[in-house]
Structures are given as structure tokens and as C-alpha cells.
Specification:
By secondary structure, the chain is an all-alpha fold. The chain is 79% helix and 0% strand. The radius of gyration is 19 Å and the shape is flat.
């Protein structure tokens, strides 16, 4: 049973968010690292992200029965009751907020709460099922973890935090649209109006290309604003252009599923490279 509670918190998503938390934290630290502060920031974000995932599982338990990839989830199978899920999600969220309040600062708490409200209150409860723009609004929530890591150190929402929010919000779009393409049948079965379902896969491909152009324009901002060094610029630009090339090549391909998976897995590589380079090539 404990395994089911672990799985419903989506540990893979938590780990992915911790990578970007670390990137934001080490960027702001500029080589002077407070490990205890990092522990509080990482733990707090992990708990709140886990809370959001459990709430999402609770909210989506009806449509999860319609999708192949989600029909075996614990709430769908009745292995965890809706009441238990609500209590579990609430406890995780409250613990996360307490950890951030105790160990970091009020800016972090505010950023996390804004992200949580967007993800659970706006995206999961409303826009996911009713608007093609749900992905765009949800991207703001997905971009909060590196901002939390950064603000834990800086203790302010400054230009660096704003640039991180911009970069990671844009990153979310091709990442999410790629999932929507290779999970097209699931989203269509559940009548979720993601762009490929609401319009066409080709329109989603064009949007991916446009967002990747924007991503390649946004990532150098950390260098131009004096937060990172030249190696950050060179390496992130190289990987970003490679991601853009994959998107461009996909405009003519007929193998949409295989192409979308390549875009998706490249997006994971990109966020790891982005987080690593802004951690190690800071300007202090």
C-alpha cells in the first residue's frame, strides 16, 4: 500500500523538478553554497509538487479511466480512496509550505503558492478540460521550481528570477505539446482539448517550432544580464539549436509519434544541460 502512495505522488516528476530547483539555487549561490538552505528548498518544493500531483490524480480520476496510460492509477483502481487522497495531498502541501516558511523565506512561499494555485486551481480544475490554452497557463506552474531555488538564495524576485521564469515557461510548451502528440489517442479519448486534439498535429508542430525559436532567444538572457559566463552561452545555445533542428525536421515527417518522442526526450536533456550550466558557470 505504501508503494501506491509513493507512486501517486509521481516521484519522476519530483526528481525532474529537483533538477531545475538545483539549477536556480546554484545560479544564485555563485559558488557560495549553503547546503542546509538547499535541503529546505528542495524538500519544500518536493512536498508541494507531490501534493499537486496527488490533487491532480484526485481531480482526474474520472477521465483517467478513459486513457490507457492512466487507467491503472491507484485512485482509478480503488486502491486509494478519494478521501485518503485528499488528506494525503493536503498533508503533503501543508508540510511543504511549513518547510519553506521555516527554512527559506516568504518569497519562496509566495512563489510556490502561486504555482500551486495555477496548477491545481486553474489548470487541473478548469482549463485542462475546457481550453486549448490550458497548456500555456499550466506552463507557469511548471516553471516555478527553479525560481524557488533561486529566490531561496537571493531572497528577492529580481531580474534573474524573471529570466528563469521566462526560460522554463517557454521550455514547458514544446515539452508538453510533444507529449500531447505521442499520447494523442489518450487525450482524444478523454476529450482533453490539447492543441493536437483541438486543432491538428501539424498546428502543434508549428507551435513547437515557434516556441523553440523563442526558447533559443530566451536562454542567452542569463548571459547577457551578467548571471552566467560564456560557456553557459555556448553550450546551452548548441543544445537549444539542436532541439530547434529536430523540431524543424519534424514539419515534413509522417512518423509523428516517433518524432514527438524524440522532441520529448530531447527536452529532458535540455533541462538537465540548462540546469547544469547555470549551476557551474555563474558570474560572482
Amino acid at each position: 500500500m505504501l508503494k501506491k502512495y509513493w507512486q501517486v505522488a509521481k516521484p519522476g516528476i519530483i526528481i525532474g523538478n529537483l533538477i531545475s530547483v538545483a539549477g536556480g539555487f546554484f545560479l544564485a549561490s555563485k559558488g557560495s553554497i549553503d547546503l542546509m538552505l538547499f535541503f529546505y528548498a528542495a524538500l519544500g518544493v518536493s512536498l508541494v509538487v507531490a501534493s499537486g500531483c496527488v490533487f491532480n490524480n484526485f481531480i482526474d480520476r474520472d477521465i483517467d479511466t478513459l486513457m490507457e496510460r492512466t487507467r491503472d492509477r491507484a485512485l482509478v483502481q480503488g486502491l486509494i480512496s478519494p478521501r485518503a487522497a485528499l488528506i494525503y495531498a493536503s498533508v503533503l502541501g501543508l508540510l511543504g509550505i511549513f518547510v519553506l516558511l521555516f527554512g527559506t523565506n516568504i518569497i519562496d512561499v509566495t512563489v510556490v503558492l502561486v504555482g500551486f494555485i495555477i496548477y491545481v486551481g486553474v489548470y487541473s480544475l478548469s482549463l485542462k478540460r475546457n481550453s486549448v490554452h490550458g497548456t500555456l497557463i499550466g506552463s507557469l506552474a511548471g516553471a516555478m521550481p527553479p525560481v524557488v531555488g533561486y529566490c531561496a538564495v537571493s531572497q528577492q524576485f529580481d531580474l534573474g528570477a524573471a529570466i528563469l521564469l521566462l526560460i522554463f515557461s517557454i521550455w514547458q510548451m514544446p515539452h508538453s505539446y510533444a507529449i500531447a502528440i505521442f499520447r494523442f489517442n489518450d487525450y482524444r479519448a478523454a476529450s482533453i482539448p490539447v492543441l493536437p486534439v483541438a486543432k491538428t498535429i501539424q498546428s502543434a508542430k508549428h507551435q513547437i517550432l515557434l516556441y523553440l525559436i523563442a526558447f533559443n532567444l530566451a536562454t542567452p538572457l542569463l548571459y547577457l544580464a551578467g548571471y552566467t559566463g560564456i560557456w553557459y552561452l555556448i553550450i546551452t545555445s548548441a543544445f537549444g539549436l539542436y532541439w530547434l533542428y529536430i523540431a524543424w525536421a519534424g514539419l515534413k515527417t509522417k512518423k509523428d509519434t516517433a518524432w514527438a518522442k524524440k522532441v520529448f526526450f530531447t527536452s529532458i536533456l535540455i533541462v538537465m544541460v540548462q540546469s547544469l550550466m547555470m549551476s557551474v558557470d555563474t558570474v560572482g
